Amino acid sequence: MRWVTFDCFGTLVDWRHGILGSAELIAPGQGVRLLEAYNRHEHVVQAESPAMRYRLVLAEALRRACAEEKVPLAADDASVLGATLPYWPVFPEVGAKLGALREAGWRLALLTNCDRDLIAETRRRLPVPFDAVVTSEDAGAYKPADAHFELFRGSYEPEVWVHVAQSYFHDMEPAHRLGLPRVWVNRHGQRPAKPSIVPHVRPDLHGLLAAVEAA
Q1: Is residue 28 classed exposed, middle or buried when 0-12, 13-18 and 19+ CB atoms within 10 A define those classes?
Q2: What are the pLDDT digits (tens) for 82-117?
Q3: Range of the domain at 148
Q4: Which of 44, 46, 130, 176 is the most exposed place for a label (fewest CB within 10 A)?
């Protein structure tokens, strides 16, 4: 029972493109500013309210981002991220690289800071099937809390388990804390605070099968 678990947004789906494009819909020309501000607020909202549904997290973090950047936000426009999320683009290499894992005998799962309804919409756009999904709604918390990982371990009892994700903060840190083999998909060329906790690093999903088996 060999499993690879993935974060979804940022790792498989272009989260930054989705937020930037959605912000441009409601505030043309302000997308970059709002994306960076949103990124500062989302994890704070999640930490404050671990049981809050993700649509509400998206809306509240966007409100705070707009307030910080002094960008007017109509009340109805706060829901734009939840409305557009099912259409955010999948990275182009996802199908081939996850398909190679399946062909090599790995089972695939998602550990996502998202709710069941939203990830169900997104899964229709993912080019490969997944054998399991653990959402924030299931876990009752948001990563970097341990709940997703603990629920997956208890539910599926993996004999071999590698976690793959883009977010150093949300995924690599808890995976390291729990002693999981891990592959960091460093799509944005970040410099990690502790390089030693991410021994297997890829700039995208190319070379993923080799990295997973090395991990």
Answers
A1: exposed
A2: 999 999 999 999 999 999 999 999 999 999 999 999
A3: 2-14+88-214
A4: 44
Q: What is the CATH number of the domain that holds 149?
A: 3.40.50.1000
| Burial of 189: CB neighbours in 10 Å, binned 0-12, 13-18, 19+ | exposed
Task: Provide the H-helix boundaries in 10-146.
Answer: 15-26, 31-48, 54-69, 80-84, 94-103, 116-123, 136-139
**Residue 105, Cβ neighbours under 10 Å: how many?**
7
pLDDT band (50, 70, 90) for residue 43: very high
Contact 76, 5 (CB under 8 A): no
Q: What are phi and psi of 208, to 5 degrees?
A: -65, -45
> Are 32 and 131 members of one domain?
no
Q: What six digits make up the tokens of 165?
A: 């994700």
Place of tokens 């549904």: 53
Q: Are residues 108 and 33 in the same domain?
A: no
Secondary structure of residue 165 in the 3-state scheme: strand
191 with 120, same domain?
yes
Q: Is the domain of 104 the same as that of 184?
A: yes
Contact 142, 53 (CB under 8 A): no
